[in-house]
Amino acid sequence: MGLRGHFKAAATNVQTVSLLVVRYGARYCALPSDEVRGVLTKEQAGQGQTVNWVGITYQQVNLAAQLSTKLDLTSPELRVVLFSNGHSHGAIYVDEVAGLIDADRRECKPLPPHFRCEERMWVAGTISFENELAIILNPEWVLGEIGAEASLPSSVVTGRSLAA
Amino acid sequence: MLRAARQQERAVSTRQSWSVVVFSVGGMKLAAKAEDVGGISAWGINVPVPSRTPFVGSLVKRDKDVLPVYDLAARLDRQALTDSSLCLVARHVDGPMAICIDGEIPSLHTVDTSEVRPGRGHAIETVGSFTRDGVDIDIVALRRLGQP
Asked: Which residues, including other chains, have CB under 8 Å from residue B134's CB and lie 6 or more apart?
């Protein structure tokens, strides 16, 4: 193989991935930004179990519960991420949208092989974000198309409207 | 006389011993072969991961690496002593794995293999157990911990 071919292969390997990093308490998660359709304040999102935005209805997704954590309803930075993969449309309430990053795919580390069960389909890997570790979530899991809630010991949000 | 000396020399050379690291989890003394321990450092910040793998439900950053955490305290049904916990890195067959151990600094011991007895069946993977200062200590098989 000539140098030209070698150079081409090297060039095509460099790819970036765009991620929206959101926060729950001290935990950071990254959502592929291709699926992000918008970020609203809770006032813009309004009350109720759905959010209507630009002709699309987004069902509330309780990602905090899926992660076995709690949404901080008092957070001044609380935002609603409109998330869609084309089939499912979800309105995800987060404590804060921490940032949007374009990362080299090589910076995304896969979940270690010690994780052997369904979580391998839920979590795509991890990435460093401002000295923190963010877990990269699979959009299909976020939108409830695959898997179910994880059974972690910490408590989950129940019985309260996230839009309250 | 020469033969006797050689036999004695052979006996000495075939006598084997293990270097083991003795540590504690939730106050319970445990040991691991030193060769199975990749290092010990201060405990970092746990990042929970939604997981169905038993006792593997978080990650911890260690330098530039991200290590899965094996919750040995939960496996042993012990309450982890969280004050100044330490991170023991296990050289697991699937790759390095972090285990949160008590803050008491681990100690290195040499154990003659003749002292090692079969494990006492604490329902964890062991390569045997031995006694030190009147305390029975299981030697955890870190390489295959949690393997199905």
From this structure: none
Nearest Cα of chain B lies from the Cα of A27 at a distance, in angstroms, of 7
Question: Which tens digits make up the pLDDT trace of B124-148?
Answer: 899 999 999 999 999 999 999 988 7
pLDDT tens, position by position, A24-73 = 999 999 999 999 999 999 999 998 899 999 999 999 999 999 999 999 99
B-chain residues within 8 Å CB-CB of A21? none
Q: Which chain A residues contact residue B70 at CB under 8 A?
A: 114
Residues of A in contact with B71 (CB under 8 A): none
* Closest CB to A150 among B51, B66, B94: B51
Q: Do A37 and A82 form a contact (C-beta atoms < 8 A)?
A: yes
Distance CA B73, CA B65 (A): 23
Judge whether A45 and A162 are in contact, CB under 8 Å. Answer: no
Hey, what domains does chain A have and what are their CATH numbers? 17-144 (2.40.50.180)
Nearest C-alpha neighbor of A128 from the set A114, A146, A145, A109? A109
B146/A119 CB distance under 8 A = no
Q: What is the pTM of this model?
A: 0.83
Asked if B78 and B50 touch (Cβ cutoff 8 Å), the reply is: no
Residues contacting A14, CB < 8 A, separation 6+? A104
Burial degree of B81 (CB within 10 A; 0-12, 13-18, 19+): middle
